[in-house]
Each structure stands twice: as C-alpha cells, then as structure tokens.
Amino acid sequence: MKESSNASTEPLGQNLIKLISNLCFSVFVFSVLVFTVIAITYQPPDPWLESAPALTRLFTQTENATFKDDKSMFNTGEDLQSSPFEPSVPPVSSITEEVIEKAEEKIEKSEEKIENSTVTERSDCDELRVVNCSDPRVLIAVERFNLKLFKSIVFLEYQTPVNGSKPNECDVAWRFRNKKEKSWRKYRDFRRFRFGYADNCTYKIVRGSGWHSGVNAKRLFRSRVNATRTAANAKVAHGISDDEINDTLPSLGSEMNFRKGKYLYYSRGGDYCKGMNQYMWSFLCGLGEAMYLNRTFVMDLSVCLASTYNPSNKDEEGKDFRYYFDFEHLKEVASIVEEGEFLRDWKKWDRAHKRKVPIKKVVTHKTTPMQLRKDKSTIIWRQFDAPEPENYWYRVCEGQAAKYVQRPWHALWKSKRLMNIVSEISGRMDWDFDSVHVVRGEKAQNKELWPHLDSDTSPDALLTKLQGMIQPWRNLYVATNEPFYNYFDKLRSQYKVHLLDDYKELWSNTSEWYNETTLLNNGRPVEFDGYMRVAVDTEVIYRAKTRVETFYNLTKDCKDGINTC
Hints:
Pfam family, one: DUF7075
Helix content: 25-40%
Low-confidence stretches: 1-9, 39-58, 60-66, 82-89, 113-123, 220-240
Transmembrane segments: 20-42
Coiled coil: 93-120
Organism: Dipteronia sinensis
Oligomer: single chain
Keywords: Coiled coil, Membrane, Transmembrane, Transmembrane helix
Number of helices: 19
C-alpha cells in the first residue's frame, strides 16, 4: 500500500511543478510583450519644457490660440537647464590651482639646473627687482590672483604677458567663460597688473587694474573683408572686433546638391510682428519639424520689431535675425538655408530644365508632421494664408504633433555681439554685483490686474525692501522697463547703482557692436532696440550673485495678473 501511495504522489508533484513553471513562463512572455508595446508607442515629452517649467507656462498658456507674451525677460537656449537631448558643453581645459602648481614645479626644476651649472653668486631676489613680463612666474602670479578674485569665472587660456606702461607693470590677456553660461563661447579680457615680490622670491601682484585696462596685450584681430565697408562710407569703430563670429550664409552649391536635398519651407505667417517670445516659440516649431522630417529648414532672416518694443509705437520690419541670435551656432547644430538664396536657386534650376523640382504644398496646419514623414518631394511648402490665429506657425506643433516634434532650444542662443556687451557690463563690475529686476511700465499702470505693483516698486518701497536683501554699498544692477533714468536715485544712498543706460557707449557709433551691425546692414546704422535691451538685461541679471525679482520678492501681485498665481 505504501508503494502504491508513493507512486501516485510522485507524478502529482511533478505535474504541479510543471504547471507552476508554465505559468511563470507565460507571465514572463506576457510582460515582455507589454514592455515592447510600450517602448514602441511611447513618445517622451519635450525635455526642454520638462526642465524649464516656468518657460513652459509662459509659452503654452494659450486661450483660443492667442499668445501671452512676457516682454520683461528674453530667455534662449543657453539660459535653460540642460537636458538629455541638448549637446553638452564640450570639456575644455581650464586654468586651475593644480595646473598652476604643475607649472611652478617645472620652473623650479629648470632653476635648479641653472643653479647647478653656474658658479655666479647673486643676492636673493635680485632678478625680480626689474619685472620681466615674459618670465613664466609673472603669468603664474596673474593666474593665481585671478582665481582668487574671480570665483565665478572659468579661465580657459592666457597669452604671454607684455610690458605695461611702467617698469613694474605687465599687461595680460586671457579668454574666459562665466560659470553660469551654458554655452561654450569664449570671451576676452586684458588687464594691467603692478608687481612686487614676496619674501620667498616669487612675484606678487600689488595692484590689478579694471576691465580691458591692459591695452598693450590687446591682440590685433584679423580684419575681415567686407565689400560694404567701403561702399557704405559709414562712421564705424576702430576698436576690437570679434573675429570668432561667423555670420556668413550657408550655400546650396550646385544644382545636383540642390536636387539631392530635402527642404521644409514655411511661408510668412501671422507670427510676424508679434512679440519675441511668440517668434521663438513658432520658429523652433518649424525648425523642430524640419529635424523630425530630416529636412533642411528654409529660414527667413527677416525679423519684425513689434510696436511694443519701438518708441514710435509702430511695427518695424526688416530687422536681421543675426542682430538677436547666434547664427553661427545655429548653423552648427541644425541644417538650414537662407530663404533668399534658396528661392533664387529654386527659380534658376526650374528655368534651366523642363524637369521641375518636386514640391508638395501644405495649406493647413492640421496636416501633421507625422503625415508628411514619408513624403518624397524635394520641397514641402507649408503655407499660412488663413486668418489669425490659424496662420500661426506654432499651431503645427499642437495636439498629437507635440509628442513627436521637440523644439530644439539648444539651437537658439543669443547673439555673441549682445553677449559681448553683457560680458563688458559684468566685467566692469568685476563680476561682483547683485541685481534687482523691476517690472513697471504698462503693468504698473494697470491697477485692475496689478493693484499693488506701482506702490510696491516705488523708490521708497524699493529701498526699504532691498535693505533687507542686499548688503549696503554693493554693486547693484537694476534691470527695468522704467523709462525715467532718475527714478532709482534714492537707491544711490545705499548702493552703487548701475543701469543699462550707464553703458550707452557700448552700442554708440564708436563701439564694436555698432561697427559689426552696420556691416551686416549694408552700411546702414542699426538702432539698439527694445529686444536688445531686454536680452542684455536678462543675461546680466543671470550673472548676479544675488537676484531680486519683482513678482517673487517685491510684490504679492501675480506675474500674469490678479488670481493667476
């Protein structure tokens, strides 16, 4: 009986094990299938918008496809937090304390060899009594001095020091980047230093002069040939020009290259002459669609200055994209062609041959990028002839398209020319300043939406609130849309106040900026307009050690009006 009982339980146990194994395997297969379906169908949200919720709210709070535009700030790609889709800032070698110590070790070893090979006696530190600017120890003293003084700066490279105006002075030039800037652009400074020597027979800096004081170290920049320089006969500056800016237009080349290419062309829509934030939101929609379709984006370089930024209160057409944005960087990260050159080549090759260039016209934003993904036409031409708001470019990226088209914020940086002005202003304050952003203008006058803003940003209220946030006699940069220069005079009793208009010479007719933009504009002077002012103010604010904001620190009113916080 025992044997038959054992015989019957054995297959029962084996069957149970097989049943459990099959069940586990079925669960595993089902899990793999579910995961595969999710992986195929899932489209991640735009990581730029995830990483910048404030910008998301600014650009996506639309009512009936109208656009809320914040004119007080001008944010571009280099102001936003990095994302997995953003090309990271390439690693660069910078001058650190470790690098300086290694240089000192080399000098000490070479000096030991010299001392061992000579019998000439000399008194301690005699060779330092006359400063030899080419002595490597001079540069080491400057590097160490700068590291200690300018904590917010990354020093990238130095030039060999040259003689200053006195025997104990040297002029030194270097390239740098502010730690808060997320681009990989380099800026240049050159300063004058007065030297003494320490007890251990090393150079020490007795005095360092201010921004761009070391004029003898100013490198002679390569002159760039421009036919409009002589034709324009305009008064331009003889100062420093930035030879690292390349604004040349990309060329399509031969007919074969043109016909091999694939293009996405947006005709001008209702976004033209709207605010700058709407312009960027729409432009990046078009550029993002071109990237999604793997096509070259045909780009209109003409920007319209909206009336709200113009003293005449009229829209001003024909402003150049390159006045405001870094065209060189855009060319590096995106496939683009300028509209004028594209249309000329298109007409030329169409006339030259009976075989027309294949083209697909898209007359409504409701035709999605996904529907165009497999289109083989050489040119996809989106036309925006419908009435507003159906003719806004950004409508293309709404709805389901938002899951597929990612706006390439990393492609849009502010103009290097404007950023040079930002560096100049920050450098003159030795990168050691605080800032307050005071929003007034139309909002301060609108008591219905902002009932307390006017009184909360009055001179007396500002002084009272800032005294609790910023130490007295600090450099205080005031970024504002308040038109009256003397409005902030009360702050001068406690702070070293700086306003954008204190630096007018940086865009005057003797400035580098004036020279460069005049050349871009075929010899005609360019006005330093409201867009540019906001761009510079925005970037200087970001470089401050302490930032005070209107709608977070100075008033309880909501940024977008009553009951919108």
